Amino acid sequence: MVITREYKFGGKYDVVVCGGGPAGVAAAVSCAKRGKRTLLLEAGGCLGGFWTRGLLTWLIDTFDKGDFWDEVMERLEKNADGKKLPSISRFTADTEKTKLEFERMCKESGADILYHTFVSDAITDHRMLKAVLTESKSGHVYYEASIFIDSTGDGDLGYLCGAAYEIGNEDGKTQPMSLVAHVDGVKIDKTNYDSRYVRNKEAKGNILNDINGSGISPSYKSPLLAVLSEKYNTLGFMVNHEYGSGLDTKDITESTLSAREEIHKVAEGLKNYGGIWKDLRVTATADMIGVREGRRIKGLYRVSIDDVVAGKQFEDGICTVTFNTDIHSLRADNNSGFEEKYDKKHPPYQIPLRALISADIDNLLMAGRCISGDFVAHSSYRVAGPAFRTGEVAGAYAAYCVENNVLPNTLADLSSFL
To answer: Exposed e or buried b for every residue in 21-36, given b needs 16+ CB within 10 A?
Structure first.
């Protein structure tokens, strides 16, 4: 690439992590705790990604994710009104306090954070990533590092480097986007997570019936309420599906506008419908729409549906996934809300370290939902627990590579790291 305008040098780090969602936070903290100079770049104004900016601190697949994960859950329980949900591998916490706790974690580890910083391009030399170019209030700034981690969710850094990627199913179709809202005024039994309206299959049907009864047909046919803070009776509310591209700014904008309009329309309809909804109030809509399908960057190993169904275990396995495959309707006229033909029951399976290592860029790692996998496998590992765990391991492996002056794709060294 030829730089056609002047970029200022922002600094050289051991590791630069792009994307401050749960995977990026875990990667940055894990790397910095090992004494490596680490920079975390985030386009928004807080850490946590969809957990926080997306307003859904409803964490799925939280069992068996390692000591660091357990430590974080303890911190969220203590400082963010966190609560383990009974009988299921889920956890919920207060969204605002989660932002603060993630910032504290990064500060304690020594990782540097830069908010409102958009990664706009990359400088590569053959198979090596030399620097990321950013745009911000500070102007055009570039940052160098020995190792880079793509935790953008959509594989933006890998794409900018020219790395190969996949998106969508065999026909290129992607899951829809959803915008989450916070609501209050719904009188529920906060101790009963299997109540008539809260987060189970029957509850979704009850909510849908009430929405339809108000004269509205929502775009998402399995609408949900999720208790996000029991202490403050904060509920997550999701009633929409948007079918634009999560990689196109115009589509994301139009989808956000449409979804926010629908949320308020549905809420007003339910309020007029009465009953449990008579005091319903939308207190917030998310800063970012939830994009379920981004790029899956090609790695040294591609996690597949066959691995999922077989409960595959690997010598370099670094994360056990227990969440089911979860594919939302690929077309707007599907009245179930989901694609049943992809519904695959499976035993726990592992993600190997090789799925976090770029096949095309020698010093690039991936973490979170942009790791290497196929369409169906991605629908299982894209959730909170695996995202955080892959981030933690990516950060630890990046620190190991810097310490030992090796590249991530040096397979001979995987055994000594593990």
So the answer is: bbbbbbbbbbbbbbeb
Model pLDDT, residue 332: 86
- Check whether residue 297 and residue 278 sit in a common domain: no
Q: In what order do the strands lie in the sheet with 224-229?
A: 224-229, 234-238, 181-184, 281-285
List of residues 6+ apart from 349 with CB closer than 8 A = 307, 308, 310, 311, 312, 313, 320, 321
DSSP letter string, 280-349:
-EEEEE-SS-B-----EE-BSS-B-HHHHHHT---TTEEEEE-PPP--B-SSTT-TTSB-GGG------E
Are the C-beta atoms of 49 and 28 separated by less than 8 Å?
Answer: no
How far is the CA of 253 from the CAs of 137, 246, 250, 282, 295, in angstroms?
A: 22, 10, 5, 20, 19
Question: What's the pLDDT tens digit per position in 141-169?
Answer: 999 999 999 999 999 999 999 999 999 99
Of 29, 184, 202, 161, the residue nearest 102 (C-alpha): 29
- Same domain, yes or no: 135 and 196: no
Residue pLDDT, tens place only, 231-263: 777 899 999 999 999 999 999 999 999 999 999
Is the distance from CB of 213 to CB of 326 less than 8 angstroms? no
Last residue of a domain, one of 250, 285, 320: 285
Domain stops at, among 252, 285, 318: 285
Show the domain range for 193: 181-285
pLDDT number for residue 203: 87
What's the predicted TM-score (pTM) here? 0.95
Q: Are residues 208 and 310 in the same domain?
A: no
What is the number of domains present in the chain? 2
Distance CA 144, CA 13 (A): 6
* Token code pair at residue 37: 């100079």
